[in-house]
Amino acid sequence: MSEVVVLLRDVWKTYTSSGVTTAVLRNVSMVAYRGEIVGIHGPSGSGKTTLLKIIAGLERPDKGDVIVDGYNLNMLDEYGLAMFRNNVCSYIPQDFAVIDNMTVYENVEIPLLLAGVDPGTRMKKVMEVLDYVGLKDKVYQKVGRLSGGEKQRVAIGRALVTTPSVLLADEPTASLDWSNAIKVAELFLDIKKDFGTTIILVTHDARLLEYVDRSMSLVDGTLKQISSPRL
Fold it and tell me: pLDDT by residue (tens digit) across 174-192?
């Protein structure tokens, strides 16, 4: 039996604007297993980003359980959630959230600085990750001078440097041409194989689902499984 790493049970999330309440997620339940890539497909505005942020502990559900690698996120305070994101679950937003006026090295180093890792260990880990994602020759280059595909790899390297159990990616290929999108998809396959990482990615590009172990659809806040897990 494969190990369940992500468990969502009856999750709801609503937002209120101008007196109107909208249910963004409706009774969402899902599991993701250790070393599995799950692709969640759906149109813009279907709740995909909200779902990832709830799994990452960046937003709290109105009701329902969110358990990630043994941590019940409903039981963690803000400090606990920050530690969780820095050690257990990494989140890559759609805009990559890289800092253009910092170097590639400095961007990838940030989670280790926050974790208080000593300088020697930081350098070793950052250089290993940059070699892994194919950016060893860009170490001291300012991120603002990189291509979109290279910026995405910086974001992946930063997410990977703490060796998280779970990696979340929001529309990871949305701003890339298909050639660079394939390279990113293949990098996710390598991460799964080499580290046993559970990867959950959301996308509106159905072609990306060719690279996942299991796919789901999210439409109007309701999640449905498209394909069964390859266990």
Answer: 888 889 899 999 999 999 9
Which domain does 77 fall in, by range? 1-88+165-231
Number of domains forming the structure of the chain: 2
Query: What's the sign of the alpha-carbon dihedral 111, 36, 24, 54?
Result: negative
The three-class DSSP label of residue 153 is helix
Q: DSSP class of residue 103?
A: B
The answer to whether residues 25 and 56 touch, using CB atoms and an 8 Å cutoff, is no
CA 31 to chain centre: 15
Residues 159 and 176 in one domain: no
Q: Are 54 and 230 within 8 A, CB to CB?
A: no
Q: Which of 163, 180, 202 is the last residue of a domain?
A: 163
Residue type, 214: R
The one-letter amino acid at 96? F
Q: Round to whole Å and give the CA distance between 75 and 144.
A: 39
CA 197 to chain centre: 11
- Identify whether residues 142 and 187 lie together within a single domain: no
Round to whole Å and give the CA distance between 218 and 202: 9
pTM over 0.90: yes
Q: Are residues 49 and 149 in the same domain?
A: no
